[in-house]
Amino acid sequence: MIRSILIANRGEIALRIIRACRDLGIRSVAVYSNADVDSLHVKMADEAVCIGGPTPADSYLNGSNIITAACLTRCDAIHPGVGFLSENSRFAKATENSGLIFIGPDSETIALMGDKIEAKRIAKAIGVPTTIGSEGPLADMQTALSYAEAVGYPVILKAAAGGGGRGMRIIENRSQMPEMFAAATKEALSYFADGNLLLEKFIGNARHVEVQLLADSFGNVIHLGERDCSVQHHHQKLIEESPCAALDEKTKVRMTDAAIEIFKHIGYRGAGTVEFLLYNDEFYFMEVNTRLQVEHPVSEMVCGIDIVQQQIHIADKEALPFSQEEVTLTGHALECRINALSPGKIENYIPCGGPWVRIDSHIYSHYSIGCHYDHLLAKIIVHTSHRNHSIRVMKRALQELVIEGIVTNRDQQLQVLDTMQFKTGQFSTNLFDQVMSVQKSQTRKKAYA
Amino acid sequence: MDSLDLHTIIEEFEHSTLSELELQCASYTVKLKRANEPNLPPVVPPSQQPVANHRVTENSPDIIESPLVGTFYLTPSPDAPPFIEVGRTIATGDVLCIIEAMKMMNQLQAEFPCEIVKVLAKQGAMVEFGQPLFEVRRI
Question: Is the ipTM of this complex over 0.85?
Fold first, then answer.
């Protein structure tokens, strides 16, 4: 039985997991770096252990210090959160080998789905549509060129071991290939220590839609609906919503069935996500995220299920307490990520509130945002009966929100919400860049006027 | 726990890597300890040792901090004398203590000659990264 959990993460996600522990009567142990002494997760956990210096490699990626801290503070399990070690199969294995429970899929599943080429091959083998492109890693630039000729430009190069937009390059024509191939290889090598690339036909006007799943150790797999994460900048998600405005009921059923089929086929255990590209009612498998996702609250709001609590129950070898038929998805949930655009000290923070609003955040007045970690400050989530209503409530919430002392992306988010494309639900992954380029040209016009 | 009899517990203990085991239940308390450690955890060679952190403040003794998370031991084995004692002078490279992490015995060495003023960590207790271990005076 899990009675104590070490949370191998920081920021808002660490708080999110501490809160789930509190709700379940589980003791929580936080870990932190030198730079995070004043962080809220350190104050809120039942215990906290300093595990290293400010750079992630010294602390939040220091598996040995984290596992030792878990053992010495008598934890039963480690929750890796998102990012850092959450998709590191060697860390999961080391955790299992130390007699601790890793709250997530088993290490073999993480390794299997971490190999993007293998994951795509599996999806294809069980009849899930995938984007056309290379079947395996590209041997060299010449192979990349011949694949690109075969599928037609534009194409996208992706790191075989990658994710999060690293090692990705979109190539419009033949002449761009040599430079882009070299750059993508270099980036993939430095981020993932694996320079292998794959090539796919690039679908420009597509949407990013993903299915949230829960699977227990007894073969039960259920979905909690889909999330549309098309509002992105440099492949980093900015706005997420559920349900997806562009998905008809028939396509939705096909997509969730495909996601469940993949999880059943690989014997997945835990919470996880299958990501798809959606283009004209056709969807294509992209990858499986073998962890909790930043945008999980969107699904929590529409299904009323605490995903982090379920992760803990599943890790504790409990069966899912509900069937697919018992999961009801109601209303519409919308999430805006508030990011810092500059480091600095938050002089004043007044959170938004009122009906239909949830905030997952770790910031407070006089909290300093350093340069060592990601720049997520807060997730504002609203849940109402209709999409239009959610947009209105979100605008109200963002306008109420006060974060002084640093530059945030709040105004950019408001601009996106105000576009005709977002209001009508007709947009693709390039919406954010479109909005920003319009803004730039308007600023230029004003300057000349 | 109810189904475990003493025989099973001893057997489990013998096959484990544990050096000590203490169990309490409603009917009895049992404490097991190995006489001679048959397979001591590996000692990390000095070349791979984590470097001791030390903090220098003016006009005050230096503080040697823990470079990793682990269990603090002042002695090389449970019954042996400690590596260092308060008041003793230490040469560069002398072992100060052991920090056990992931079944590895990490020996912490002095980076400069000094005199031990105070031992700040407790024998057998957990130490975290950056925790003060020794107060020393440079010679």
Answer: no
